[in-house]
Amino acid sequence: MSAAKILIIKLGALGDVIIATPHIEQILRHHRGAAVWLLTAPDYTGLFSAHPHLQVAAFPRKGLRPMFAALRWLRQQRFDIIYDLQGSQRSALFSALSGAPQRVGLGSPRIYSQTVRDDDRSRHIFTRLAHLLEIAGIAPADPRPQVSVSATDEAQVQAWLREHRLAGRAFVLMHAGSSAGWPSKRWEDTHVRALADELHGRGLESLWVGGKQDAVLNARLAAGGGIDASCRFSIPQLSVLARHARFAVTTDSGPMHVFATAGIPVYALFGPTDWRRSHAVGQAQRVLTHAVPCSPCHLRVCPPNRRHRCLSDLAPAQVLQRLQADGMI
Fold first, then answer.
1. Please, what are the domains in the chain?
2. What is the mean pLDDT of residues 73-89?
3. Predicted local confidence at residue 311, as pLDDT
4. Which helix (H) or strand (E) holds 82?
5. Sign of torsion, CA 274 276 279 283?
6. Looking at 130-274, which runs of residues are DSSP E strands?
7. Contact by Cβ (8 Å): 88, 64
8. How does residue 1 score in pLDDT terms, banded at 50, 70 and 90?
């Protein structure tokens, strides 16, 4: 099947965009030969900059001026089909005002010409999007998220590994941070540091990765050992780096999903959020929680003098035992 012009809407956040990459690829296959655009946020254009068959338009996710600019652009493009993979009020507005005769999305049939009732919020995001494409007559997507990587990305990562004498050596990717609005997703510093020390004793170097919001935390953790790699890699380069790691240990975060694109084992620490709907695709068996988790309690910031049990009581020894059982160490 082909159409003159197709638009896929996926604005964010990082993990959600990565989860949607197999569905984006399946839409491209279904409409082979058509002009396919992706509407996303500026932070995520790098995920698709090396893609040979996808054109990307980016507008900030917040603010009235960017919203009206995006609407103006959308109306001018005269798309034939809209695939709304975002499911937000903003993306529903974009779909409704697009002028496209066919609009596929999770929401009201007054907005979408093809939709499905989906009230089960415990279902994984990947599954919900698969159901959406099914009603549009599109074959199931391969459950393997991916990031478009350029030859330059490959070369720069290889050069960094050589510079730090890591080429051919065993190392582990560690992401201990979270977004500023979700400090309760973080494991305690003492726990993270204890795990890194145990891994170092087994010959595994820890690479502390993340963005600007993780820089202070990573510098503090790296002071006790390992390599601080904060802000050193783009998202595609982080995927390339992950291919060279033995495994990753991470919080519920965007990097968790980036690591999964490399196909390595990703051990994710889940506390206040529901792992059933947002774990890295293909990595559900490696989710680590407390024996009696409070998930999903959605406490972004814990009250004073109160421990957030679901991560505080997850001991380094438990994580280490799991890594040993899986043959990682």
1. 5-135 (3.40.50.2000), 151-325 (3.40.50.2000)
2. 96
3. 80
4. strand 81-84
5. positive
6. 171-175, 205-208, 227-228, 247-251, 266-269
7. no
8. very low
